[in-house]
Write a structure and sequence with these properties.
Elements (H helix, E strand, L loop, with lengths): L18 H4 L10 H87 L14
Length: 133
């Protein structure tokens, strides 16, 4: 684990917010240089201090809650959902064979007979002049 890069998979890439990403002065509208620099310092310090204070108070309880939540999700998938899906696949596979056999025994002969019956039909088109085509 890299101590410098705490987001190696760029999960929170959208949260990389610097002063220049939030505040910008267009050409023709410039404040005093000292005011601009002090604003940057104030922004960065307040953002950093507030974030660190919130993580000091909330990081451990949130980490505990999220850890428990993902543990429960993993538990449900390992011990409930995956075996349930496997049981459904086994049972439905058996039903699929039964249904396939039923269709082949009962419905296929009827469809085959209808196909043979309708295959003897010939369609002819007669023009208004009575000429066959």
């Amino acid at each position: 684990m890299d101590p410098l890069n705490r987001d190696p998979n760029d999960i929170n890439d959208h949260l990389k917010v610097q002063f220049e990403d939030v505040l910008a002065e267009p050409d023709g509208a410039r404040s005093f240089e000292c005011c601009w620099n002090c604003s940057r310092l104030c922004f960065n310090c307040s953002k950093g201090c507030c974030y660190k204070f919130l993580t000091l108070i909330c990081a451990l309880p949130f980490a505990l809650c999220w850890g428990c939540s993902f543990a429960m999700i993993t538990f449900q998938h390992v011990w409930h959902f995956t075996p349930l899906l496997r049981a459904w696949m086994i049972n439905l596979g058996c039903m699929q064979k039964c249904f396939g056999t039923l269709v082949n025994c009962c419905l296929a002969p009827i469809c085959e007979a209808c196909g043979l019956m309708f295959s003897t039909i010939h369609v002819r088109q007669i023009n208004d002049s009575g000429i066959k085509s």
